[in-house]
Write a structure and sequence with these properties.
The protein has four helices and no strands. With 94 residues, it is an all-alpha fold.
Amino acid sequence: MHTPAAGLAGSARAALTDDPAIIGPCRLYVLALVAQLRAVVAAIVQFDREIAHVACTLPDYALFESLPGAAPQLALRLLAASGEQREHFRSADE
């Protein structure tokens, strides 16, 4: 008895195509995507460095970083969520 799942399992073992007209452009496409991903990863590393540099200059960063369980990323998110301008809040209840 032939089932769709059995057909998929059987085709997974063999190449879908050996046609160089399909494989060549697909290979180039994947290489182009890899190059783009490398550029994005490099940009993220630069952003992370700049954010870490700026975070250390903010007066409230040490406060948020000292919270139990607040890794540097969470401390930055908490700081961004609460803002730097304490005068916006009249009391701790807000």
